[in-house]
Amino acid sequence: MLYTRKGDDGTTKVIGSTDRFSKGSLITHAIGTLDETNSFLGLCRAKAGDFLIEIAEEKIRLNDLILEVQNDLFIIQAELAGAPKKIVPEKIKRMEKIIDGIESILPPIKSFLIPGETELGALLDIARTVVRRAERQMLKAREGKMAEFSDETLTYINRLSSLCYALARLASTKGGIKEKSPDYR
């Protein structure tokens, strides 16, 4: 069934709880923004085509990497909802290895960069900003004592925004397009 009518009054509940609370609460904002992140990454995955990331001796299909991240986001949403799930440190180490590998082949950053040099790069930049919003919402939910999550989960989300940024830059570089800095005129 695609609807239950239980939320028609503007309330919802999370795993392991019988208490209902407002869909406008801090926890629903955090989980909802993670869901938005996952959906937007789905668009990035659909647009990635046969984009290949080649770092050191490893070849990673962008589609596969994004799918891996999408699965991880479900773990994070479950953790925020109270399920006994959490991100393991190995996932963070893998992401850092990929980010470091991408960074080693990109031109150094000397200023802010204007998003939008390629369609895929622009989409990944939008994903980065949605991840940052999810991070802020998660912290608000934690500070409001509406959600608990591990430090690894927070680190993972922080690295995910860095991964999206690295991938957006890589999309421009692989597209043969020079990134533009703002001119502040």
Tag the structure with descriptive keywords.
single chain, 58% helix, two-stranded antiparallel sheet, 185 residues, 6% strand, mainly alpha, Hypothetical Protein Ta1238, Chain: A, 4 strands
Structure classification: mainly alpha
Strand order of the largest sheet: 1-2
Overall outline: elongated
Global mean pLDDT: 91
The CATH class assignment is Mainly Alpha
Strand content: 5-15%
Radius of gyration: 18 Å
Termini separation comes to 55 Å
Q: Treating each run of at least 4 consecutive H or I residues as one helix, how many helices?
A: 5
**Largest sheet data:** 2 strands, antiparallel
Second rung of CATH, namely the architecture = Up-down Bundle
Describe the fold and architecture.
By secondary structure, this protein is mainly α. It has a single domain (22-106, 114-174), classed as Hypothetical Protein Ta1238, Chain: A (Up-down Bundle). It is built from five helices and four strands; from the N terminus they run ββαββαααα. The protein has helices at residues 26-47, 62-80, 89-105, 119-143, 151-174, and strands at residues 11-12, 21-22, 52-55, 58-61. The strands form two sheets. The chain has a two-stranded antiparallel ribbon. A two-stranded antiparallel sheet has the order 3-4. Helix 1 packs antiparallel against helix 4 (119-143), helix 3 (89-105) packs parallel to helix 5 (151-174) and helix 4 (119-143) runs antiparallel to helix 5. The longest helix is centred in the last third of the chain and has 25 residues, at 119-143.
